[in-house]
Write a structure and sequence with these properties.
alpha/beta
């Protein structure tokens, strides 16, 4: 009879992040909060061990409690750390940096320096400025090797895997905003997201045009229409990926 544990149930977002982690490698989970991902992966035997790190003592206390209750005190180590600052990186670990804004993630990677470069993979889930994160990665010698996307409670989340290669490249605007792998794979969740974005842009455009009809064009409304048209063009470019060859 198998004694493998199931671990805690994960939300769709956390499950998608966890699914990107390579089996068999130790994990460093930055901004671990409740340590759901490392506890789940260790409980199932997907990974041998993990560091559950958080900058704040409150979330880390919750993580420590979950680790203890799950019987994984010997496998998952809670660490109070600002990013990678107080974490020993040996070089064979996967790292998850998720559930925070894009600028925060970029800062963690930048401050991590050589520690981050030693890692075989980074799994990132920025909750803002995803385009800036992608551009930051490729400008700094990382390659985006895989991406997925989930919709949960009316919100859309971009998840990406990056590997440091030292080779600096560039992305097109549409790749930066919507993900080179997501576009190449014709990801169905991205398609729904693009259609939703386009619909919302049309609603905003109609409201601006109504205001123009009442108050005239004006500089502010003109700038708004220019921005709407630029965003719509980018979405249409992304939608071209879904046209069958």
């Amino acid at each position: 009879m198998s004694t493998t544990k199931k671990g805690p149930a994960l939300s769709d977002r956390l499950a998608a992040i966890a699914s990107m982690v390579a089996p068999g490698k130790p994990l460093i989970d930055i901004g671990t909060d409740h340590a759901y991902i490392p506890v789940k992966l260790c409980a199932e035997g997907t990974i041998p061990s993990a560091v559950a790190a958080d900058i704040n003592a409150g979330p880390l206390a919750k993580a420590e409690a979950n680790i203890f209750v799950s019987g994984l005190a010997g496998s998952v180590k809670p660490v109070l750390s600002d990013g990678f600052e107080d974490i020993e990186v040996k070089g064979g670990e996967s790292a998850v940096i998720a559930g925070m804004g894009g600028p925060t993630i970029m800062g963690i990677i930048e401050r991590g320096g050589e520690k981050v470069m030693k890692l075989p993979e980074l799994i990132l889930e920025p909750q803002s400025r995803e385009n800036d994160v992608r551009e930051f990665l490729v400008r700094n010698g990382f390659s985006i090797t895989d991406e997925t996307m989930v919709s949960e409670d009316g919100k859309y989340y971009f998840i990406m895997k990056a590997v440091y290669t030292g080779e600096k490249t560039e992305l097109s605007d549409v790749e930066a905003f919507y993900g080179p792998c997501l576009l190449a794979d014709r990801n169905p969740v991205l398609l729904r997201f693009l259609e939703k974005q386009l619909e919302e842009l049309h609603i905003i455009e109609d409201r601006v045009l109504d205001a123009v009809g009442v108050m005239g064009m004006g500089e502010t409304r003109e700038m708004a229409l220019v921005g709407i048209m630029g965003s719509a063009r980018l979405i249409q470019e992304a939608l071209q990926y879904y046209i069958k060859d």
